[in-house]
Amino acid sequence: MNLAQMQREFQSWLVTASDDAAQRLAGGHVAGLSVYQNNYRVQLVDCLRVSYPHVQTWLGEDAFLAAAITHIDNSPPHAWTLDAYGDDFGETLALLYPDNPEVHELAWIELALSRAFVAPDAGPLTLEALSDIDWESARLHLAPSFTAHVVTTNAADIWSALQQGIAPPESEMLAKPAAVVVWRRQFTVVLEAVDAVEHAALLQLWENGSFDALCSMLVARLGESEGVAKAGALLAGWVGKELLAGVAA
Amino acid sequence: MSTPSSRFAGHGLGLRREHYRDFLETDVPVDFVEVISENFMVEGGQPRHILRQVRERHPVALHGVSMSIGSADGLKADYLRRLKSLADEIQPLFVSDHLSWSRIDHFNSHDLLPLPYTEEALGIVCRNIEMAQDTLGRTMLFENPSSYLAFGDAAMTEWEFLRAMSKRTGCELLLDVNNVFVSATNHGFDAHAYLRGIPAERVRQIHLAGHSQGTELLIDTHDSPVHGGVWSLYAEAIALTGPVATMIERDGNIPPLADLLKELAVARSIGEANARMRQVAA
């Protein structure tokens, strides 16, 4: 057996605990192989626990462990860093809990926050930087840590309660889907619910950065005077919340 | 061939999250700190910010766990790019990883898996080391792993493998004395022969850590104080290597910093005793 064949056999042992692989690797002496098998699975479970502490609290220890085992069995790790192992855990939760959308929405929130935590540094944009710019050609850059998601449940409220260490509310469907955004202010990650207009405005800005296009979208949606006023108010709010990282004329 | 690392004979600790505040707000009496490279190979945010602050106070060694130097299908360019970016910024004392493999094809176990000590594996490991050192523009250190499985087709011992690897590539060694103790116990080889067999002049750093007794084997858990037998082996090791950077690794059941500093003081005293013996002998 050459090195590549041995390493594929070892992968097979770790992922499936195949007796055939154990026989070929160690002649059936599994004591040493079992140490590696145990290390592999324990490390992945621990990674999911660290990545999704509030999902674990919400589901309870036994259900979380069962979900983690399902994920490990179905999604062997492949990313360059262990920290990224849980990136698609939300998809496993969605399959396991199709009637409990708050579970995978809670997972989305935890993943977005952890990604924002190590997103590239940038900004923030100051009000002073906005003076004397050509608004027709100005392109605003959102913080690199920014991301947005549409939720159908009160997952954001559940996350907030768990984060504060207080009893979370019962899960419930929202009257209509809503949006949450995540970004980082300096070294603090932020989760915030936004209304439909602000969500659409942020997505518009995320796509092409044009403030002129943003104004046009808001005017089309709200009318001339209200649309222009809304654009100004949103811009001031985003600067204050450090959602913007820069501007290019 | 890359420029060899400079000799550095201080005593240090692994920087762990539980002790960030101590290292940022107090004058911790260590000569260097070691960090897990992958924890800081991120694009931005607080981890890199903390590391920059610590670097202003202490020399830093970068210790990786995911290079997978023994992968039959080679190294990942993106991983090396991230590591180079970090090393270029931090200007570390050492950049190290393990003599092991973690990844094959699209699978990454994130564990330090054992290599068969064959001529084929030696060729692959050396090719990968040369790629890593060329990309990083610096000599790397590789650590002997704890292992729980020995391969029947091995053509050489681990220390013979390390010697040949170091000779071919110019790489240097991170000698984990606890790993020697664990592997020697698990596989029944002579730890003293191991220490005499490695090229002592290539050792630039030493790790000390605790281990646990598993059902049948010793396990390298890093969750307890350094074992008495490991201290004895450490004294023997530095008699062979001379003074080199030495540190305590602790990754589980992490105690207050003061407890680790007491353990580090033991390493210092053994080092001082060894230095006195060298002076007398000279």
From TrEMBL, chain A:
GO terms for molecular function: DNA binding. Pfam families: DUF2063. InterPro entries: DUF2063 (IPR018640). It comes from the Bacteria. Residues 5-91 form the Putative DNA-binding domain. Keywords: DNA-binding. This is DNA-binding domain-containing protein. It comes from Dyella flava.
From TrEMBL, chain B:
Pfam families: MbnB_TglH_ChrH (PF05114). It comes from the Bacteria. InterPro entries: MbnB/TglH/ChrH (IPR007801), Xyl_isomerase-like_sf (IPR036237). Belongs to the UPF0276 family. HAMAP family: UPF0276. This is UPF0276 protein ISP19_18295. It comes from Dyella flava. The lineage of its organism: Bacteria, Pseudomonadati, Pseudomonadota, Gammaproteobacteria, Lysobacterales.
